[in-house]
Amino acid sequence: MNKCRCKENSENHSLETRPGCKDCVGKILYSQVNKMVPPQPTNFKMPSVPIGKPLHNSTKVNQIVEQPAPARPEILPKKDDKKKSWSISDFDLGRPLGKGKFGNVYLAREKESRYVVALKVLFKSQILDSEIEHQVRREVEIQCRLRHPNILRMYGYFHDERRIYLILEYAKNGALYKLLKERDRFDERTAAVYIRDLTKALIYCHSKKVIHRDIKPENLLIGHNGELKIADFGWSVHSPSSRRMTLCGTLDYLSPEMIEGKPHSYAVDIWSLGVLCYELLVGLPPFDAKDSHQTYKKIRYVIIKYPDFISEKAKDIMSKLLVVNPEQRMPLAQVLHHPWILENAPEGTKPTLMASNEAQ
Q: Signal peptide span per the entry (predicted)?
């Protein structure tokens, strides 16, 4: 979001209408990032009892969404000098936003600023059991440093004996995956807008030497204004050398070089962009098959069937992204100038669903 709504109307915002203002929330929360205590997975302790909710003593849990927010301060009120990091007591928690293998995500409000965020709670015991300490640390290190309108902001993090807490931007419209399943497939304008947004985010990531490696609808969220945001960097890697060997990501989105165990680079994200484009338009990934063996075969030889309702321009952009040779895939900068993008998603265009909601 490029415009600060708080400065226009600081008294009348509902708490769910202000999740992404860079002018305000960056000043409110990011100023405290350097005070965060980083997670220390090697010292994790097993929880003595199952933890249902990270916070039990909040009296405002059910009021987070309904009550209007006060005027936003320009900066987060200074904490006591003796308090050097965030703790869960600094937040009121609301409804769950999602559940995963390693923890849950909650709607939350920072008590002093009353700013609404998403609080991702990871359980140390489960991280240890799955031996993904390095992956979690890498995700935090990468996402905390990225600043782009189409990347979910991580404002900070802290931890206690049992859990790690990630303070994230709240994306009001939820997961792209859920929206896609509700509608079966998107019209070409909506799909083109999301591909445009994701392309911009990937150009930025690559400029920072970050390869995402796990682009898929489940890892993409939709912000307040309908903008797409990359939300999960669990498989991402900072790779100045640009060549990697690790097999990671989701099968349907793996590139030919990855399934063959060859070195891979930024071009794996370009391949995933093409796969996503197809899934948004059709409702299923292009290499979907009865078993993994057939999926591997389809990916290796780029066996794709385009339904009749797909336009020629859409087929053209996908055919230039889904190329076996990584060096021959369309560069991301050219994606933004492809006729299909220019026709359906010129700058300022919003997804059809969001545009129709605003018109009502």
A: none
**Sequence spans of domains, the chain:** 8-58+67-168, 176-359
What pLDDT is recorded for position 358? 57
Residues 224, 331: Cα–Cα separation, whole Å: 29
Catalytic site includes residue 308: no
DSSP letter, residue 30:
G
- CB under 8 Å to 298, separation ≥6 — which residues? 286, 287, 289, 304
State the pLDDT at residue 356.
Answer: 55
Rounded CA-CA distance 139/238 in Å is 10
Pick the closest to residue 313 from 177, 209, 195 (CA basis).
195
Query: Which token pair is 104?
Result: 């849950």
Q: Which amino acid does the sequence have at 172?
A: K
- The pLDDT value given to residue 71: 36
Q: Which CATH architecture has domain 176-359?
A: Orthogonal Bundle (1.10)
Q: Which of 92, 214, 232, 252 is catalytic?
A: 214
pLDDT along the chain (360 residues), means of 10: 39 38 38 37 33 31 36 36 72 91 91 95 90 86 92 94 94 94 96 98 95 90 94 62 43 91 90 97 95 94 96 98 97 98 95 64
Neighbouring residues of 127: CB distance < 8 A, sequence distance ≥ 6: 41, 44, 102, 133, 136, 164
pLDDT digits (tens, 9 = 90+) for 249-266: 578 999 999 898 888 889
What DSSP string runs through 47-73? -SS--S-S-S--S-GGGTTTSBP-PPP
Q: For residue 49, what are the CA distances in angstroms to 14, 46, 122?
A: 36, 9, 15
Of 96, 23, 113, 101, which is closest to residue 62 (Cα–Cα)?
96
Which residue bears the tokens 């100023």? 31
Alpha-carbon distance 141 to 146, whole Å? 9
CA–centroid distance for 197 within its chain: 12
Return the CATH architecture of domain 8-58+67-168.
Answer: 2-Layer Sandwich (3.30)
